[in-house]
Amino acid sequence: MARYGMALDYKNCINCKACEVACKEENGVELGAEKHRIWVGGNNPEGAWPLLDMASASFLPSQCQQCEDAPCEEVCPTHATYYDENGVVRVDADKCILCSYCMNACPYDARYVDERTMTIDKCTFCSDTRLARGEMTTACQATCPTKVRTFGDLDDPESEISELLRTRDHFSLKAHLGTKPKLFYLT
Amino acid sequence: MSVEVSRRKFLQGSVALSVAGASAISATNLFSSENASEHKSTNSRIPSTITTKTSTAKAEHVPFLCGICVNKCAGLARVEDGIITKLDPNPYFPKNRNMLCPRGNAGIQTLYDPDRLKYPMVRIGERGDGKYKRVSWDEAYEAILNGTDKFKGIKQILDEEKDNRATIGYCNGEGLSKEGFEVLVGEKIGSPNYVDEISICLETTLGGYVNTIGTYGEADLTNSDYLIIAGANRAEAIITPDTMDMFKRSKGRGLKTIVLDPRFTNTAVKADRWYAINPGTDLAFVLALTYVTIKEELYDKAFVAKHVEGFDEYKKHILSHNYTPEWAAKLTNISAKEITKTAREFMAARSPIYYQGRRSVFSKNDFQLRRAMAIFQGLSGNLDKKGGIVYGQKLQLPKEDVNAPIYGQAQARFDKDGIAIPSLKTGSWIVFRNMVLEGKNPYPLRAMFMRKHNPMSGVPNTKKTEAFLKKMDLNIMIDILPSDTAMYCDVILPEASYLERTSPVASYGGMEPAIVQRKAAIKPLYETKTPEVIYKELAEKLSKPLWENTLKYDEDVQDDTEGMSAKELEEYYKENGFDLAEPWEKPVHEQNEERITKAYGKKAWEILDEKGVFYPHMEEYHTQLNPNEFEYYPENKKHYSTQGDKLKVKCNLTNLTKKGVDAMPAWHDDMEFSVPAGKFRLVTGRHAQFTQSGTTNNAMLRDLIPTNYIWINNQVCEKMGIKFSDKVEVKSPIGKVTIMAYPTNKIAPNQIFMLHGFGGSSEKMELAYGNGANDALLIEDKIEPVYGAAVMHDTNVEIRKV
C-alpha cells in the first residue's frame, strides 16, 4: 500500500523523447505516432525572426496525471477504470468496452486506444512491469538524460518525492478542475 | 500556466504528424521478409510484436555499450528467453550518467529490423539495382578473392597492379571495431588509402584545439557558471555527459547560457540569450570578444603571463586589425552592444566556458575559428581547472602491437590537392574521391573495402560518390543494414549488431575516467557474424594468395627469401607479418580478459565483466545520491587539474605560415556571409531522434519524426504561397531534391534548414527509402584549406513550390 506520485523538474526537459521510447519498449505500447502514454508538449516561440519571444518557448513533459479524483474513473460505465491499491489509475482490459467516455472526460488527454489489447489505455506508472518486479523507478524516470522525473510514495515522509515537494515550489496542471493530480511540476 | 499543451493540441501543432510515411515497397527480396507493423518471423529468436512488454519472469541483465551513435553509453540489456525486451541505463558509467536517449532506447528496433542484412550476398545485377544472390560465407570470401563473372577479385586486381596495395582504398565509420578494420586493411593488407569519417566530421575542431591548447578537452558543465555555445545543439545532438550536465542548470539555475545559432534550436529554448548569427561568421564574433577582452584588459593577467605563448603578438594583431564589436556587428548580425556585454560577462564570470563544439566543419575558416575560441578560453584562465575546459586523465590499456608487413610495391597516398596539412593516416574524403574521379591519382584506385560507413549520404555530392563507387572494380561492404552505399557493393557481409557482440574494451578519459566493455546480450541473429570473426575469416582467405602475389612482384621480399626452403619461407611469412589473420587468433572476450588482467589485475577484470564498467576504487567510490543520480568519483578524486606548468596556450603558430595558413586567427573579406537575392543558404543538422542515415529505418524513431522537412522562414513562405507540408523543390549548383515545407519563424529569411540523414536511395530499407531528402545531393563538395575537411554550410540554393 502506497500512494504513488511523481515530481517533474520540467525545466530540465530538452524534448528528446527518451521517456516516450522507454515507456513504449517497457510496456509494449504498440507503434504509431498517436499511440503513447507519455508526450512532451512544446510551444514554438512567438514573434518574428530574429526577435523571438524566448519566454514563450518551453517544453512540458506530460502523461496521465494520476488524479485522486479522476474524471475518467467516474465516467467509466463498466468500472474498467479503477484505482489500484497504490492509488494508481488503472484499466482492466477485460472490462473495457472502448466506449471512449474516459478519453473525453480526461482533461489531460492522457488516454489512447490500444488496438492490440482493445483497451483505452494509459500510463500505469509501470505498475505491471517494473513495480511488479520490485523496482522503484518508472521507465521514463530511469532513462531520462536530464533526470526530470522522481517517482515515489507520497505517504512516505522519507521518500525523495516527499522531500522534493516539501522543499521546492511546485504546481499541478489544471488544478482549478479539482481532479487532484499526483503529478507535480517543480519550479 | 501558458505552457500547458494537451496531447491533441501538441499533435496538431507538431511537425511529427500529418504526413504518411514512405510508400511501402514490395518486400519480396532477400533482404526483407517481414513487414513493419509486426514481426512475422518464424525465427523463435525474433519477438512476435515490434514492442515487447517486459515480464515479471526471470531475466538476464547483460552490460552493453550502445552503438547507435558515437557516445558509447553504457546500458543493461534485459534478456528474456533469448529475446531482448528492454534496454536500461547502466548506472556505473560516469560518461552517460545513468541515462539512455531515445535512440539508445530504440536500439532494439535496429536489432530486430526486418530489413537487416541477414546473409552474405554477392551482386548478380548491375551496381545500384539491388540484385544480389544469397551465398555462404565461404562463397562470399571466395568472391572477394577471385571475383565472379560480374566483377574482379582482389587477387587479380593486385596481380594486375603488381602488388601495389595502395590500389585498395578503405573506410569505416566510427565504432569500437573500427580499429580492427584499420589493422586488417591498413596495416595487414597494406593499403595507405584510408578515408576516415573525420574529414566529414570534427577534424578542424580537434586540430584547432589540439594545436592551440594541447587537447580538445572536456567542458566541466557541472561546475561552470557561464556558457557560450555556438553552432552546437546539445539538446538535439546529444553528447554525453555534456547534454545531461548542461540542461540541469540552465534557465537561471546556475549556468548562464548564451546560444549562437542561425536557427532557434531546442538548445536556444534553454538559453538566457539567443543570437541569430549569420552562418560562417562565428570567427568575427570571437575576434570581437577577444578585442574587448584585450582592449579593456579583462583577461586573467597572471594566467596569461604564465601560460599563454605569443600573447603580445596576438594582442597587437587583434588591436591593429580593429576587430571591434562595431566591425563584427555588421558581419555577424549581433549588435556591438551585445558583443561587448557578452565579452565582459564572460571574463567576469567565475568559471566561463566557450563550448568547443563538435560535429562537422561549418565554413572554410573553421580551423581558425576553433583556434580563436581556444585562445579566448585561455585568456579567461579557465583551463585545466574545475568548471573550465579540463584535460583529465585516461586509464591506460596495454598497447597491442601489430606485426605489419612491409610491401615494397605499395605506393603512398595522394589526396593532397589544395590541402595545407594533409593527413597521412586519415585523408580527406572529398579530395580523395574527386582526384580519383578526375583521374588525378598517380596510380589506379580499384577497390573500396568499406564497413559501417555510408558515404552516399555522408559525403557532400552524392552523384560524385556514386560515380566514384561505380569506377571501382571491387566494392565490399560489412554492415548491418543494406545502406545506400551497400547497394553499390559487389560483396555484402552481414555483421552482428552491437547487441549481439562482445567488443574490444575501450577506455574513456576525462575528469572521471573509466574502462568499459560491451558484452554480447544475445548470439548473432540469422547468419550474421561479429566484425572480428569476419576480419579473421577474410584474412585467412586472403592471406596466402596475396602473399604469393607479393612473392611474385616484391623485389625486397624476393631478395630476402631467395633460396629459402618451404619451411623457411613459411617462417619468414609468419615472422614478417604476412600472415594476415594473426591479430585475431584469440576471441575478443579472451583478449579483453588478458589485457585488463595484465593492466589492472584479476579483480578488475571480474568487475568489468560483470558490470560492464571498471575504474580503480569503483566499488568504494560509486554511491547513489538520489533515485536518479550517482557519484562516480569523490570530489577530491576528480581529475580537474592535471597539467601544472605544462599547460600552454599557443597564440602564434609561426610554422603554419610557410604552409600558407595564418599563424594567428584572422578575418578575410572572402569570409563574409552573403546570399544573392532570391537564394538561400543551406544549413543542416542533427536531431536527438536520429543518428545520420544509420537510424532512419528504425520503426520506433520514425514514430517520433516521420521525415525531414525544409525549414523556411514563415514570412518568406507567405510571399511564396508555401504552406506546411507543401512540396518544395530545392536546387543547388550540384543537384536538386523535393522535400516538404515547414514554415517557421525560427530561421532567417535568407536561410533554409534540413535534417541530415534522410532521403535514402536503397530500396531495401523500407522505411528510409525515398523518405524526405538527402542533403548530400545538395551540399557542394567544398573543402577547408587546412585539412581538406568537407565544408557543410557554404552552399546557396533556390527553392520553388512544386
What does this structure look like?
The complex is a heterodimer of chains A (187) and B (802). Chain A has 187 residues and is of the alpha+beta class. Chain A has five helices and ten strands; from the N terminus they run βαββαββαββαβαββ. In chain A, the strands form four sheets. Chain A has a four-stranded mixed beta sheet with strand order 8-1-10-9. A two-stranded antiparallel ribbon of chain A has the order 2-3. A two-stranded antiparallel sheet of chain A has the order 4-5. The longest helix of chain A has 10 residues, at 18-27. Chain A is globular, with a radius of gyration of 17 Å. In chain A, 53% of the residues are buried. With 802 residues, chain B is α/β, with parallel strands linked by helices. Helix content of chain B is 29%, strand content 15%. Chain B is built from 26 helices and 29 strands. Chain B starts with 6 loop residues before the first helix and ends with a strand. Mean pLDDT of chain B is 94; it is low at 1-5 and 8-36. Classes of the chains: A alpha+beta (187), B alpha/beta (802). Chains A and B meet through helix 1, strand 2, strand 3, helix 4 and strand 8 of A and helix 1, strand 3, helix 2, helix 8 and helix 9 of B.
